[in-house]
Amino acid sequence: MEATERCVRVLCPKRKLLPRSKDESTVLQWLIGSPLFLPPLTVISSFRCLHFLDNGDPDLQKEADDIRTLLLRGFDIVGALYLGTGAWEEKAGKAVEFSWQLRKYISKEETYNMLGATFDFNSGDILFASKIAKSKKIEAFSCVIYEDTADEYLWEKGCLLRCEMAFKLPVYVPVDKTSDFKEVFSLSTIAAATKLKDTHVAYLVEGTNVYSKEEPHSIVLHGADLDFSASACDRKAFNNVTESNEKDLACSVFCSKSKFISSSSSKENADAIQITVLSNKSRSNSESGAPRTQYLPASDPARFFIVNFKLDVLCYASKDFPVAAAISRLVVPGLTDQIVSMEKVFVQKLSSEHQLCPYHFLPPGLLHPVTAIYDLKYGEAEVAQAEIRKTLHERLGLPLDRPLLRVANSLAFGVKDITETKLKSKLLIDVHTEIPSSGVSGGNLSLIDGSYEYYHYLLDGFDDSGWGCAYRSLQTIISWFRLQYYTSIGVPSHREIQQALVEIGDKEPAFVGSREWIGAIELSFVLDKLLGVSCKIMNVRSGSELPEKCRELAMHFATQGTPIMIGGGVLAYTLLGVDYNETSGDCAFLILDPHYTGGDDLKKIVNGGWCGWKKAVDSKGRNFFLKDKFYNLLLPQRPNMV
C-alpha cells in the first residue's frame, strides 16, 4: 500500500479531539468518517460518548440509539479516541474494539478497518493506530494530516439529499390487552417501514438549484427500479453505472451549481436534492373494475390510536453516486431509522400526545449537519427539551452557555426558506470587521463574540435625531441576542421600548410616543422584561477615568462577549471592544456610533468614523469622552442556557 494511502487525514480541527482538561482521564470519543465516499482513514468529526456501564465500558446499545438519530446516513463510525490508563497499544486496542462493536449496533456492517486513537498528555499529540477486525496486532500510523481546507475536501465532491414524509399510523389494541400496545405498535411501524421498499412506491427526485436560473432536473424512480440488497458500505456495487437510463443518473445532475456549504454560511445557503415519497398503487393494475370493499369484523372490542409521524431525513453522498443507489442505500434506511427512533418515544408515554419534529443543524466547529428530534408539544422552554439540548451540546463538544441547537438555529432549505432567512437581515451586520487597526502598540485586543445589526438615527425613515441614540444602542444590543439565538422576538421599536418601561411602572403612560431620553438604567429594565437578560452597571465619575476601566471591560468581552452601551451627558454609544496595553496604559475603544444619519453605506460609515477606534484623548489633544460628564456603562450578561 502506498504511503499516502496509509496516512490518517483529519478534517476537523485538532482542538475538537483534545480533552478539555487532564481531569478527563476516562473520556471516549467516537470518530466519524464516510467510508462509502471518502478514504477509510479520514476523520471528519467526533462525538463524545455519554453512556457508560458500571465497569467503565461504553453502553453501546444506548450510544447506538442516540447516534443513529444524530448522524446522517452517508457518515459512519470509523474509530474511537480513548483516554484511559495503560500503554498506548492497550488503549488503542480498546478504542478499535469499542468502535467496531458500536458500528455493528448501528449499521450491522463490519467490513473495514477501524481507527483507534489515544492522547499523550505529555506531548499533546494524538496517536492513531489500526488493526483488522479479527487481528490482535495494532499498527500505529506515522503519517497524520490535519486538513486546512476541510470544507472544500468534504463538500466540493459531496452533496445532501433530503426527504420529508408525514403519515398517520392507525393502531388497534384489544381493550383488555392494552399492555400489548408496545408489541402491536412495533409491528405496525415495521410494516410502515417495509412499505418504503414496495414496488408500488415511487420517489420523486428534484434538483433545487436555488441560485441557478436553470430549470431543476427531476425524475421519478419506482420501488421496482431500486436495489435494496446491495451492502451500504460496498461502493463497488454501484461503480458500474452507465447513466444510460434515469436510475443510473448521478447525484451531480440534481445538485445546485452553487459552492459547497460551510458552517459560516450554511444556514442561509443550505441546499439539498429533494426526495418525495409517493404511492402509486394503480401502476400494476392491468384490468379496470369497480372499487371493492371487504368487511373484516374485529373479534374483540379494541382501542383505536392514531400516531402522527413527521419524518425529515438528511443524507450525505458523493456527487458521482447514482441517485437511485442513494435512495435505496441512504434515504430509505434513514427514514426507517427515524421511524424506529420515534417509535421508542411514543411507547414510553402512551397517554401523552407528542409533537415529534426532526430538525437539522450545523453548529460552529462541525463540518457536517446533524439531526435532532424534538417534542415541541410544550415548546422549547420546557425543562425536558432543555435537558435534551444540553445532552446534545455535551455529545458534540459545544459550549453549555449559548443556544446553538434551538429550532431557530436549524438549517433552512429551499427557495422560500432561504429567501425568508435573507429578508430577516436587511440591515448592515458586523460593520467593525472592515475598520483598520487601533494604533495601540502591543495591546491586547478584546472584542464582542458574535454578530449584531447596526441601528442608527433615521433608520427605516423614523426621525429620532437628537434624542434616540440610547434607543438605537439598545436595538443593536437586542439584535446581538437575536443573532446568537438567545431570543426570537423582534427588535423593538422606540414606541415598544417606551411601552415596556410603562408596563413595569418605571414611566408614566404619557411617556409612550414622547421624545424623552433614556439611559443605562432604563435599558437594563427593558432587557430584563423583554429578554430576561440581567445587566451590570458600571459608574464612571468622569470621561477621563474611562481608560482606567479597560481591564474590566476586556474581562467582560472575554467572558460575556456582549455589546456595551456607554451613556454620558446627552450622548450614547455602543462599545464593541477595547485594545489595551497593560504596561503602557495605552488604550482604544471600538465605538459604534448611533448618531449616524446617512444611508447604509459601509464605506461611508467606516471612512466617516461612525464605527472605529477612539482614544480617550486623540493625537490633537481632543477628548472623546467628556471630562465634566459622568458615564454609566451597561454590561449585558450572556445567559447561561442552551
CATH architecture classification of the largest domain: Alpha-Beta Complex
Number of helices: 13
**So what's the CATH class of the largest domain?**
Alpha Beta
Q: Within the CATH hierarchy, at the fold level, what is the topology of the largest domain?
A: Cathepsin B, Chain A
Number of domains: 3
Note the overall shape. Answer: globular
Low-confidence stretches: 263-268, 415-423
Provide the β-strand percentage band: 15-25%
State the separation between the terminal residues, measured CA to CA: 47 Å
Question: Would you report the number of β strands?
Answer: 23
* Class of secondary structure makeup: alpha+beta
Helical proportion?
Answer: 10-25%
- Quaternary structure type: single chain
Sheet of most strands: 7 strands, antiparallel
Overall mean pLDDT: 87
Rounded to an integer, what's the Rg over CA atoms? 29 Å
GO molecular function: deUFMylase activity
Protein name: Probable Ufm1-specific protease
InterPro entries: Papain-like_cys_pep_sf, UFSP1/2_DUB_cat, UFSP2-like_2nd
Family: Belongs to the peptidase C78 family.
Describe what you observe in this structure:
Helix 9 runs parallel beside helix 11. Strands 17, 18, 19, 20, 21, 22 and 23 form a seven-stranded antiparallel beta sheet that branches. The longest helix is centred in the middle third of the chain and has 26 residues. The radius of gyration is 29 Å and the shape is globular. About 2% of the residues have low confidence. The protein is built from 13 helices and 23 strands. It is 25% helix and 22% strand. It starts with 7 loop residues before the first strand and ends in a 6-residue tail after the last strand. The protein has three domains: 145 residues, Cytidine Deaminase, domain 2 (3-Layer(aba) Sandwich); 204 residues, no CATH class; 206 residues, Cathepsin B, Chain A.
